[in-house]
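Figure 6 in text form: structure in, sequence out.
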């Protein structure tokens, strides 16, 4: 029954977002604007939304698709996480003869990495300033990368049904039995590599200074993120939560969703640029300097 609800959520959530977004319009506050300028075919989102009137707005269909996708994948992933494996016999076997150990990286760290990725990507200064259209696209891109990894890894866990390395010890001690056959792929590796990949892409794409100090700083940030994600993946094997293949699969999944949705929001899905764009921020910032920009 739970598995049927997953499909229901995936079908209903995008449709609901589409319907809710369809009624939104922005008023015309510019008396000298050309005809059709005032009725914005999109939704204005405060400091992230329509700059200089309604030019550059996303269409409401596009917004409904983006947020419907996020909500649908989040709902589907949650329902799948509560479901039992689809098959009694696992598609990928595992000996399951290791002892149960206390994990070094609890689930709460995963939630922190999710929220931290979304928060940092949307709030840190980018190449256009602070809290602008690119920030809004990062908000959506990070959320899409995380929820995509969430539903794919949860669905795959149910589909494969692989016993964890400590499977029999869990059964004997009756510890977290509901998670005992959800070894492939590693959820921790998925989400931490999503965070590391997305934030590394952000670092190099948004902070484009070629100064030696800037390059060294960006390289250090990338190395720190990769090392952190790699350490988390290592602990999942050392703590008998996963097999090496599980964390490799999770790492590839997390990096792939981050790369795909970063590209989708920042390179493929950008709205057409206005011929006379207004400045989205009066603040120009890099990792090493902050300046105020005044237009006359």
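Output sequence:
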């Amino acid at each position: 029954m739970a598995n049927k609800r997953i499909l229901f959520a995936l079908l209903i959530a995008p449709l609901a977002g589409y319907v809710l977004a369809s009624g939104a319009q922005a008023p015309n506050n510019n008396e000298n604007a050309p005809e059709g300028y005032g009725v914005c075919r999109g939704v204005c989102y405060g400091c992230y939304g329509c700059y200089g009137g309604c030019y550059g707005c996303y269409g409401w269909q596009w917004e409904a698709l983006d947020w419907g996708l996020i909500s649908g994948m989040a709902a589907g992933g949650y329902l799948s996480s509560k479901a039992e494996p689809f098959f009694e016999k696992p598609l990928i076997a595992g000996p399951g003869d290791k002892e149960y150990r206390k994990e070094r990286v609890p689930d709460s760290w995963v939630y922190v990495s999710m929220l931290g990725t979304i928060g940092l990507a949307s709030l840190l200064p980018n190449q256009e300033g602070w809290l602008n259209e690119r920030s809004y696209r990062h908000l959506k891109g990070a959320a899409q990368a995380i929820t995509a990894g969430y539903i794919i890894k949860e669905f795959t866990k149910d589909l494969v049904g692989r016993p964890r390395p400590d499977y029999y010890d869990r059964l004997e001690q009756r510890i977290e039995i509901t998670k005992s056959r959800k070894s492939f792929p590693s959820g921790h590796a998925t989400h931490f590599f999503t965070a590391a990949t997305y934030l590394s892409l952000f670092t190099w794409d948004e902070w484009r200074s070629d100064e030696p100090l800037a390059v060294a700083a960006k390289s250090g940030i990338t190395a720190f993120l990769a090392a952190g994600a790699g350490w988390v993946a290592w602990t999942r094997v050392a703590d008998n939560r996963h097999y090496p293949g599980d964390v490799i699969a999770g790492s590839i999944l997390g990096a792939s969703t981050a790369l795909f949705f970063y590209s989708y929001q920042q390179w493929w899905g950008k709205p057409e640029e206005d011929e006379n764009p207004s400045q989205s921020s009066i603040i120009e910032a890099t990792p090493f300097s902050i300046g105020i920009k005044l237009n006359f």
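Caption detail: The radius of gyration is 22 Å.
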